[in-house]
Amino acid sequence: MSESLAGATSDMTTNPTPTGEQGTPVEAVAPAVTTVTPHFKLVFICVAVITVLTLTASLYIGIFVEKPTEAAKSAMDTCSTLANLGFGAMVGLLGGKAVN
User: pTM here?
Assistant: First the structure.
């Protein structure tokens, strides 16, 4: 048994390059590169801008309107929902790009 181990160690020391099943050298696999296209940038920036604007509008209505009417409350809820959806869309876009 020690002879088989000695043979394996001597083989590893004489042949430091990893080999495949048939003795051919195995090439190192380079990490995948994710490219960001101008179209993706445009969509992401548009979603980010809309998200920030709706969040700002929701905060403005919530902070600066002292006695909000039902319409103001509805607008604030709509802007808050749109901001949440925009954040989810940005996470989805980045996740989808990372998978590619």
Answer: 0.64
Contact 36, 75 (CB under 8 A): no
Pairwise CA distance, residues 20 & 26, whole Å: 6
pLDDT band for position 34 (50/70/90)?
confident
- Given a contact cutoff of 8 angstroms between Cβ atoms, the answer to whether 40 and 34 are in contact is no
Residue 26: is its pLDDT beyond 80? no
Question: From CA 78, how far away is CA 60, in angstroms rounded?
Answer: 13
CB 52 within 8 A of CB 76: no
Residues 6+ apart with CB under 8 A from 63: none
* pLDDT one-digit tens code per residue, 41-69: 999 999 999 999 999 999 999 999 999 99
CA distance 49 to 60: 16
